[in-house]
Amino acid sequence: MRSWQKGYHGLLPQPFLDGLHPSQRVPRRKLIIQQAAWPCRGTLVAEDARDVVGFTDLCPTRDDDRDAVEVGEIGSFYVLPAAWRRGVGRELMTAAMLALRAANFSSATLWVLEGNVRAIRFYERMGWQPDGAVKNAVTGGIAVRELRYRCEFS
Hints:
- It comes from Nonomuraea maritima.
- By secondary structure, the chain is an alpha+beta fold.
- It has helices at about 1-5, 15-20, 25-35, 90-100, 115-125, and strands spanning about 40-45, 50-60, 70-80, 105-115, 130-140, 140-150.
């Protein structure tokens, strides 16, 4: 929740962000764990000496315009704000990309909230590029646009 609250500040309504609680995510996290089928579907975590400081969910693409056999997806990617700019995100993304390659995906995609400059810069530094696809969603009671980014593993 702290990643959402800090990362989406100014992008999503503040009352929505302030009202987030980890218990709201428990059913989704349980489902993701139950559906794990490594190496092509699962969760990677980043830990410091005491705690989980980041995680990413990997799966075959869920987009209709891509082949789920060939294209993987980073379904979520979050690092605690206290771990930002300490290399945690870079290490976690590197591990995610290696895992997707090991699962024989030739490329992968991820979706990022339009206007999330910090995340976009990070993804671009890691070799991801926008592929032109956009989707509209409702988050926190407001309409948002998400941009799809793609990384080739050739």
